[in-house]
Design brief:
Chain B: Pfam families: MlaE. Chain B: Keywords: Membrane, Transmembrane, Transmembrane helix. Chain B: It comes from Niabella pedocola. Chain B: This is ABC transporter permease. The complex is a heterodimer of chains A (about 260) and B (about 260). Chain A has about 260 residues and is of the alpha/beta class. Chain A is about 35% helix and about 25% strand. Chain A has 9 helices and 10 strands. In chain A, the strands form 2 sheets. In chain A, strands 6-7-8-3-9-10 form a 6-stranded mixed β-sheet, with helices on both faces. By secondary structure, chain B is mostly helical. In chain B, about 80% of the residues lie in helices and about 0% in strands. Classes of the chains: A alpha/beta (about 260), B mainly alpha (about 260). At the A-B interface, β1, β2, α2, β6 and α3 of A face α5 of B.
Chain lengths: ~260, ~260
């Protein structure tokens, strides 16, 4: 189970979403989502495929615009931000993609150096190398620095993806299906890494998943998304004491099957 | 909060709306290019890499097609001129054809096929594997890094490749004329460039610039707006080539018409 993180104002809200709507043509994906993420907290968003989990975090980071509702991140209204302000906000919000989204043409080291070169141009090469080394050590993949993404396993790609996000020292981490398609041992390693990131880098996180083991080991709060809105939010035991059919199905599929 | 239904009805029909939306998106894409072209940061290293890729790596194909174009065009033209005993006009005829039409058009069509397809496929693959989104969320401007560098490199390299292609085509023509009419290099050059005006050269350079920009912008637009999945990658590469070639022919007609008006 998760342990308490010291020296963090857990009352401070870092992400606040109210009445969020998002449609793609006639497909109404999000229909009135409300969510609060507090500093140092990990929220796990659970839901079946196609229920808008990834859309939710893409709206948070400004990759998609909402049709209606407010999305406040670190006291800033995301849809109203100009390009420069959005860029500055994105430095504080890390986004880990489902398949890592590593740049194919660059080595692991270059993948990590790329955001640094663009966003911290004053940094010397020595400082940059030191930061890359520190992040690779934190994710346990120092030996892959000269490897190309094609040479890495699925789990390694995800870890490097997390590392590339951490390189900019974000305050908030958004994980899109961090354990999807991985074997149970690698899933546990990724779950441990998410917790370690939270403790070591003092991040607040939203974790999108349909893996209950991941939800149980990483989430302080679980939010279940169904038909475009949250049907239940709370800690793991509260949520899974519900009789809601979707929640029961999830529980039974993950822990019984 | 209870979910509510939100409806988005098409204004005319879904297809017509889609067409106008695409036209508007292309316009926005092009205007964004011109807005950002002079803004910092300049991705110099990536621009040079693209120039190397588009320019240097196209040289073998451009050389081959240039030489063959010159050679074959000379061979095909000779019988017609020979009927009037005017084979001495061959260098002049060939050079006008190469400078005014063949070099820009052949170079553009080759680049549309080679560079356009690879650009479209590369960006589309980056799009579907979320690499472009990854740049966006890392506070990196993917438009500057990926689109600007490729479009600029294409626009600048195409005139250079066209000059090279034209030169090699003239070499091909010279080889054939020299072997058949025993014309010396000096006479060939003298005859070839007598009827070439500054307007011909300038028009060809402008054509190459326009074609280069067209190939770059069409391919990058297709790649940037690829639909999800591997099917989208193939489609982007294909549409990049087809649309680029179509636009190149339309631009050719317009530019030739304009130049003839000036002439």
């Amino acid at each position: 189970m998760k342990s308490f993180i010291p020296n963090i104002d857990k009352q401070q809200t870092v992400i606040s979403i109210r009445g969020l709507y998002k449609s793609f043509g006639s497909n109404h994906v999000l229909r009135g989502v409300d969510l609060d993420l507090h500093r140092g907290e990990n929220i796990v968003v659970l839901g079946r495929s196609g229920t808008g989990k990834s859309v939710l975090i893409k709206v948070i980071v400004g990759l998609l615009y909402p049709d209606a509702g407010t999305v406040r991140v670190l006291e800033q209204e995301v849809p109203e931000l100009g390009a420069h302000a959005l860029r500055n906000l994105r430095l504080k919000v890390g986004f880990c993609f489902q398949h890592g989204a590593l740049y194919d043409s660059m080595t692991v080291g270059e993948n990590l150096a790329f955001p640094l070169k663009r966003n911290e141009p004053g940094m010397t090469r020595k400082e940059r190398d030191k930061r890359i080394e520190m992040v690779l050590e934190a994710i346990g993949l120092s030996h892959t620095i000269h490897q190309m993404p094609a040479e890495l396993s699925g789990g390694q790609r995800k870890r490097i993806g997390i590392g590339r996000t951490l390189i900019l020292r974000p305050e908030i981490m958004l994980y899109d299906e961090p354990t999807a398609g991985l074997d149970p041992i690698t899933c546990t390693e990724i779950n441990d890494l998410i917790n370690e990131v939270q403790h070591r880098f003092k991040t607040s996180s939203i974790i999108i998943t349909h893996d209950l083991t991941c939800a149980k080991s990483t989430g302080d709060t679980i939010a279940v998304l169904k038909e475009g809105w949250f049907i239940r939010q709370g800690n793991f035991d509260d949520v899974f004491s519900s009789d809601e059919a979707l929640i029961r199905e999830f529980y039974e599929y993950n822990f019984i099957q | 909060m209870e979910p509510i239904e939100q409806s988005k009805k098409p204004v005319i029909s879904r297809q017509v709306d889609g067409f106008f939306i695409t036209v508007y998106e292309i316009f926005r894409f092009i205007s964004r290019f011109f807005r950002e072209v002079l803004r910092r940061p300049f991705e110099t290293r990536e621009f040079i890499r693209q120039c190397f890729y588009i320019g240097n790596r196209s040289l073998p194909l451009i050389s081959l097609t240039g030489f063959i174009t010159g050679l074959v065009f000379t061979k095909q033209s000779r019988p017609s001129l020979a009927e009037f005993g005017a084979t001495s006009w061959l260098p002049s005829l060939i050079s006008i054809a190469i400078v005014r039409a063949l070099a820009p058009l052949v170079t553009a069509l080759i680049c549309a096929g080679r560079v356009g397809s690879s650009m479209g496929a590369e960006l589309a693959s980056m799009k579907v594997t979320e690499q472009i989104d990854a740049m966006e969320v890392s506070a990196i401007n993917p438009f500057k890094y990926l689109v600007m560098t490729r479009v600029l490199a294409c626009t600048i390299c195409l005139p250079l490749l066209m000059c090279y292609n034209g030169l090699i085509a003239l070499v091909g023509a010279f080889v054939d004329i020299h072997l058949n009419e025993q014309t010396s290099m000096e006479t060939f050059i003298q005859n070839a460039f007598t009827n070439i005006s500054f307007l011909d050269l300038a028009a060809s350079l402008v054509k190459a610039l326009v074609y280069g920009f067209t190939i770059g912008i069409v391919s990058c637009y297709q790649g940037f707006h690829a639909s999800q999945g591997t099917e989208g990658v193939g489609k982007s590469a294909n549409v990049s080539v087809v649309v680029s070639m179509f636009l190149i022919f339309i631009e050719e007609v317009i530019i030739v018409q304009l130049v003839n008006t000036i002439r």
